[in-house]
Amino acid sequence: MHHPSNIIHQTSSLIFHQTSSIKHQPYLTMSSISDSIQAKCLAFGDRIIKLNDYLLTQAGKREDVRSKKEKSGRIPIQLLSVANLSNQLLRSGTSIGANNAEACNAISKTDFRSKSYISLKEARESLYWIELLHRNGYLDDKQYQSISTDAEELVKIFVARCKKLDQELGGK
Questions:
Q1: pLDDT for 1-20, tens place per residue?
Q2: Which listed residue, of 123, 139, 147, 153, carries a Cα 20 to 30 Å from 70's Cα?
Q3: 23: buried, middle or exposed (CB in 10 Å: 19+, 13-18, 0-12)?
Q4: What is the pTM of this model?
Q5: What are residue 136's phi and psi, to 5 degrees?
């Protein structure tokens, strides 16, 4: 006859060995397609960070901004405007890749879809901030066309992914 404490020990030992050999398996692993999408997200995030630095540097160099700062001792509204717009773009533009990384480590297909939709929303928000920066003269036409093309490509990627997931899961 087995003593109860031995059975508990043997059972817990068996359970431990079984669970310790099970690795966390995300719903979708980083396939070559996922790697490619994440690479695009990272490249876009890099561009957004550099654009943020550029916009703030350029705004600080403007003569009208410098002279107003010297006269009043306060940060001029023009610099605050570009800083706020640029910060919003920085947040949304870098969030695309972060949410895509979470999606690629999702615990279910529903979780994968949810994170993919967040990436899509962040990409669309980035387009909005890029448009505002262009409309207000902080981005010239060439800069605008270049960065907005990259953002639109991410939107298309995530729209296609989300549509496919909606079909597989039966709607939103």
A1: 444 334 333 433 333 333 33
A2: 139
A3: exposed
A4: 0.75
A5: -100, 15
